[in-house]
Structure formats: structure tokens, C-alpha cells
Amino acid sequence: MRTLIITSLLGDYSGIAEEVEKQLQYQDKKQESDEVVSIHQFDMLSRSYDAKFDECEKLKARNQELEKSNIKLMETVNKYRYFIECQRNEIDKL
Length: 94
Fold this sequence. Notes:
This protein is an all-alpha fold. The chain contains 1 helix and no strands. Helices cover 85% and strands 0% of the residues. The protein is rod-shaped, with a radius of gyration of 38 Å. 0% of the residues are buried.
């Protein structure tokens, strides 16, 4: 908390000092409230980030599975192409 000392040679400024002190206390409470909101927002963003990161990891794993499956399918297609080409050559010989 901030403090403010007001001194004067003339007049009574205690009312002003009290008002300034109230405003400083209000600002301190507001700042604390803003910090709590910021922590809450950070927590929400952190959870959201973690969820997106987990989702990304799952998608990466799925993508790797699909790539492996795609490679196997291409190998099978190439085998059939080779078989068809061999059959075509046999037909041409006859």
C-alpha cells in the first residue's frame, strides 16, 4: 500500500489527507482485484493452451498412423500394378 504524508504551515488539510488516503486504498484494492482477474485469465488461458496442446499431440499421432497406412496402401497398389503389367505382357506374348 502506498502512503502519503501531507504537511502544511497554513490551514488544516486533514480532510484532504483522509480523502487522498481513501483514494489510495481504493486504488490498491482495485489493483489487487485486477491482479486476481489477471491470475484467473492466465489460468483459463493456460488450461485452454494445455487442451489445444493435447489435441495437437493426438492429431500428430493420428497423422503418423495415417501416413503408415498410406504407405502400406501404396505398396499394395504397386504390387497390383506390377501384377497387371506382368499379365498384360503375358497376353501380348500370346
